[in-house]
Amino acid sequence: MAAAKTGFHRRASGVDRCAAQEARRIAGGDSTAPGGAIPRSTWRWLDALPADRAVCVLLRHSVRDALAPGDIGYAHPLNALGEELACRFGAALRGRLRTVHSSPLQRCLATAELLRAAAGAEGAVVEDRFLGDPGAYVVDAALARHNWETLGSAGIMARMAAGGPGLPGTRPPDEGARILLAHMLDTAGAVPGVHVFVTHDILLAITAARLVGPPRGVPRWPRYLEGAFFWRDAAGLHAAYRGRRCTLQIGQL
Q1: How confident is the model at residue 87 (pLDDT cuts 50, 70, 90)?
Q2: Residue ranges of E strands in the chain
Q3: Which run of H or E residues covers position 27?
Q4: How many Cβ atoms from other residues are within 10 Å of residue 97's Cβ?
Q5: Burial of 71 (0-12, 13-18, 19+ CB in 10 A)
């Protein structure tokens, strides 16, 4: 899937600067600490977003405890740090957050609700099975679970992020990424502001890799509260993740 690359261009932002600075001060910005801080790339793109456009943020949930070997982590909640960071990030979205959608799993719903409350956003969190349980890529849940048991999350992300036909029980990665992006854009509509879609590392990793490009930096896979950003303007449909930004061709959707 070819995408025309452009350089990073900083835009004026309507974000509440005071809240953003407070969030950075307390949460930190160490991009090398996957569990201890909100990633710098999340702040970078949040500050660069146009305030007059609908922006979709595909966001990994906040921090949970580490999983034991072989644990699929289906029911693991946020830990205390995860709750704090979700609140801090939500405070930075005050005045900008319009809607929040979430995977039905508890740690995603908790992240979404903490974000919504801290941002002072109206409306309830909407459960969205495109974001998990099973997610936009899964067509057979039993086969998808077997993939996880045999490959683990890192193995699934590596295989699916590379493209190709996908794994048993899943859509081809490019198709799944297009479906998920079209769903988010349709859901956000033309309402200016930030529309957050809380999901899991696997969905974020595959979607970002197929739409924006292979992952850069360490760690390779998404950190907690790391996001991929998508928005339209007069120049086209834009996608940004970590150090990359690209303009997608409408025909890709």
Answers
A1: very high
A2: 4-5, 54-60, 97-102, 126-127, 193-199, 227-233, 236-241, 244-248
A3: helix 17-27
A4: 23
A5: exposed
Cα(129)–Cα(60) distance, rounded to whole angstroms?
A: 15
220, two tokens: 């390779």
Angle between helices 80-92 and 106-119 (to 10 degrees): 40
Look at residue 154 and give its three-state secondary structure: helix
Name the percent of the chain in helix, strand, coil, to the closest 5.
40, 20, 45
Angstrom distance (rounded) from CA 110 to CA 78: 7
Contact in structure between 30 and 37 (CB atoms under 8 Å) = yes
Average pLDDT over residues 83-112: 97
Q: How many CA atoms within 13 Å lie on the side-chain side of 70?
A: 0
- Which sign does the torsion angle of CA 53, 183, 89, 115 carry? positive
Question: What's the length of the chain?
Answer: 253
For 113-151, the pLDDT digits (tens) are 999 999 999 999 999 999 999 999 999 999 988 998 888
Confidence of residue 70 (pLDDT cuts 50, 70, 90): low
What's the chain's Rg over C-alpha atoms? Answer: 17
DSSP state of 50: -
Question: Coil, helix or strand for 84?
Answer: helix
d(CA 152, CA 2): 29
CA 76 remoteness from chain centre: 19
